[in-house]
Amino acid sequence: MTSNFQRQFSALFLLGLAVAIVALLVGWGRLGATDAARRPAAPGAPSVQGPGAFLPPEGAQWEVVLGSDEQKYLMGLFLDSLEAVRKGEEPPDCEACDQPLDAPVFVTVYSPDGRMLRVRTRQASLARSVRTAARLVHQDGAGWAAPESLRVRIDIIRAALDFPLQQRRAFAQKPLGRPYGLAARAGGELSVLLPADLVGWQAGTPLEMLRAVCHWGGLDANSWRLGGSDKLKMWRLETVGFVNDTPGSRRTVSSPRGLTPVAQVNIATVLRSIRQAAGYLAAIQGSDGGLLMFWDPAAGFHGGCKSVVVQEGTAAALGTWCELQSQADALKVCQKAIAWAVDITNPDPQAPGRSFTREVEGCHPTWELEGSAQTLRAICRYHRASGREEAAPWIRSLAEFLLFMQSDDGLFYLKYDDKTGKRSTPASGFDRIRAQTRAILGLTLAYRELQDPAYLMGAKKGLQPLLADEDIPATCSAGQAQGLCTALLELNSFLPEDRHVKFATRIASARLRTQLQPKEAPAPDLVGGALPGLPPKAEDTANDLVVFASTAMMEPDAQYREAARRAAGYLMWLQFVPQNSYYLPDPGNTPGGFREWPGANVIRLQTMDAALRGMVLLARLELQERKHD
Fold this sequence. Notes:
Number of helices: 19
Mean pLDDT: 87
C-alpha cells in the first residue's frame, strides 16, 4: 500500500537558493554598494550650505508635503535627468526648480545585478536636488544599467530633530512606534538610517535602530550611549519616502519602514496574496517534497529541521486553497509535500488496518498523534480538491489510528510505541490543547471524505473536555485559539450546536482585545497586528486571522469580519513583493513569503501555514458575503 501511494505523490524538482548579504552603508556624500567594505566618503557633499550643514546641529524642520502627483513628478525628473547626463546632455528644465525648499534629499538606486548606490544632496529646491542627485548617480554609477531598468527610492527629510542622550535612553526602551530614522556623527562622518532602511538593516526595534546607525557608521554599536556634542551628535529623522512601483517606472508607492502599505483589503487583494504565498511555497519545495522551514533572503540562510506538523499543516493549507479554487500548481505542491510524510507513515504492526506517521528523528518532539493528525488533514484536503480515490485507504487507516489513540474521556494520547502497543502522554514538552484540536480536525475531515459516523463521533467526543473548560477561551494562546476555531468551524458544519458558536465567539472576543485598533495603534501601519509584542509578530497575527475568519463564518458579526480584514492587511504589509524587496541583491524565490515582523527578513514555514489558511478562510468569507449581497 505504501509504495502505490508514494508513486502517486512523487517529488519533481530540487530547489537551489543563493542570496548575498545586503550592504547598506551611508556615507557623507554618496555611497556605492559595489564594494561592501568601502568606508564612507570624506566630507564634501554638494550642498549649498557647505560641509557640516547638511543636517543643522541644532536640528531643523522643513515643510515637505507631497501628494502622489508631486512624488511622480520628482521620480520622473530624476529618471529623465539621469538619462540626459548619460547622453552628455543638460538635465531638463523644470518650473519646480525655482520653488524654494532646501530639505535634504537622499536618492537610492538599485541595479538589476544587485548593486546599490546612494547619493545625498541639499539644493535650493527639491527639484534641483533631484537633478543634482542624477548627476551624482551617473558619476558613481558609470556603466550601470539604463534608467528604465532601475528601482529608485527617494527620501526627503522633513524633520531632523536634535536627539540628546536622555532622549536616546528613553527611545531605546520604547516598543516600535511611528516610522523614524536616525542620523549620527562622530568627528567628520555622518551615518544615516532612514525609516525605509529599517527592513533592509533588520532594525525592527528602537534599540536595534540605535545600534545599527552607530555600527554602520564605523562606530561601536553602543556608541549611542555617549553624551556630549564633542563625542557624538545624533538626530531623529522624519521623512517622506517613496519608491517606483516597477523598475524604470514614474509611478510611486510610499515606503514607511521600507514596506508597502496595503491600500484596501478586499477579495481581489486577498486572492492575490494567496496566489503569491502559494508561489513562494512552490519555489522552496525540495526534490523530496519537503518545504524549507525558514529562509532569510538578506543573509542567505535557509534550512531547518523539517517538522511533520508544520510540513503537513502547510500542505493542508494549500489543499484548502485548491478546494476553494482549482489550482493545478498548488495541488502539485500539496501532493509532493504529502509524499514526504508518506515516507515516514507506516502500517501499525499491532493492527494492519491502522497507520501512523512517525516522529522525524532529530527534530523537536512531534508525537505520533500530532504527526498522524496533520498527515490525515493534508490527505483529506488533497482528496477533496483532486478527487483522487487512491487517497481514501490512507484516510481510513490514519483515522483508525486516531480513534485508537482516544481514551474513554475523549482526550487523545500523544505518544505511541508500536513495538509494545503502549499509548502514553508525556508529562511535559507538549501543547495538549493544540494536539487535541488537530486530532478533532483530522477526524472531522475524515468523516467529510468517507462518511463513516465513527469518525464524526470521535471528533465530537474529543471536543467535550475542551468545551467543559470554561477558562480556555480567555486564556488560550493565539496558536491554540486558531486550532480550536478551525476544529469548531469544520465540526459545526456537520453537528451544528449553539455552544460551538458561543465557544468560538468567546475565543474571538478575547483575541480581539489583543489586536491593535486604528485609534490605539502607535502607527497606522501597525493596525491589525497582534499584541502583546511590539512589533507584532506575523505568526500570532496570522493565527488570529484564522480565529476571526472562522468565527465570522459561524456567527455573521461585522466586528469579527472587520477584525479579520485588519489582520489580513497587516500580514499583506509584511508579505514580500517586488515593491518592498528591492534592497535584496537577489530576491530569488522570496516574493510571496511573509516576514516575521517589520525589520525582519526571516520567512518561517509555520507562519506561512497560518497566514495561508487565514487568507483562504477570509476569501471564503468574502465570497460568502458577496452571495448574500
